[in-house]
DUF6723 family protein
Amino acid sequence: MVRRKLLFEPSGKPRPETADDYVVYVTTRFVSAGRFFGELALVRTTDGRKLYPFEGASPIGPFLTVDDARAAATAHGSLLIEADLKNPEA
């Protein structure tokens, strides 16, 4: 059995009900002149599980501006939350 380190103390709810049941951390990473990548960490607070990034996750970018990279990471987080609310993975 693999034990996972929790990034967030579980709320104790049996399953996520709204977007408030997630914590989203968004930042950016500068790679080279005019190239920025969005950085995203997504944690489901009901069980403390980190949903993103996962092994093999594609990078978010590159983008020409920090704002574009941050917006893309935020949008990606929203899509992942929507998908997890419809079908929470165990």
The CA atoms of residues 43 and 49 lie 6 Å apart. The chain has a mean pLDDT of 89. DSSP finds one helix and four strands in the chain.
